[in-house]
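lol ok so funny story. i was supposed to be doing the assay writeup but got distracted and ended up predicting the structure for this chain instead. priorities right. anyway since i did it might as well share w the group, maybe its usefull for someone
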Amino acid sequence: MNSVCPLCLESQTQPFCSDKKRAYFQCQQCFLVFADRSTLLTAQQEKAQYDLHQNQLDDQGYRKFLSRLSLPLLTALTEEQSTGLDFGCGPGPLLAQMLTEAGKQMQVWDPFYAPEPQVLQQKYHFVSCTEAIEHFINPANEWSLWLNLLLPQGILAVMTKRYTDQNSFNNWHYKNDPTHISFFHQRTFEFLAQRDQLRLEFPADDVVLFKKRNT
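and the output, tada:
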């Protein structure tokens, strides 16, 4: 029995891959690949994995990594687009710090490290999400929230590795992280942009920008 796609809610999904730990399905509409939801970690186990990350605010290598998203995002923003939310910031919100240094007014949110509900009640010129979307159990929920958080002409900036085909997915190290459960293809982002009438750009490897229209 196939699972319903957790992103576009399409019922037409097919077995895509399996390994010793879990099975994966592919949506036939948006091409999201997602891990069998019966194999997920508990929230406590998931946080324990994140606590192992060593992403310090003074880590120059991490700063360079995040600049792959911050630079094209800052280029796309106008001077007037000054307010932003870093969604899924993790224990070390370096991206928010980098964007603050660039003159933006930043808020952060994370279900484990910054679960502040009031920041989700505001509107923003941009929302960023780096290496977090692949952890979402029901990404349809976050996607809908992001669109609601954005002001007209607002920008959504996402960084995540994209799969290309079934053969490469089978041997892909990225899927072996037990907290990685939702995997995006370029066609997935193209589907979302077309469905929700967003302008779409792929400015760098693993980076995608969506721009909301005026209304």
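The beta strands are 13-18, 23-27, 33-35, 83-87, 105-109, 124-130, 150-159, 182-183, 199-204, 207-211. The radius of gyration is 17 Å.
back to the writeup now i swear
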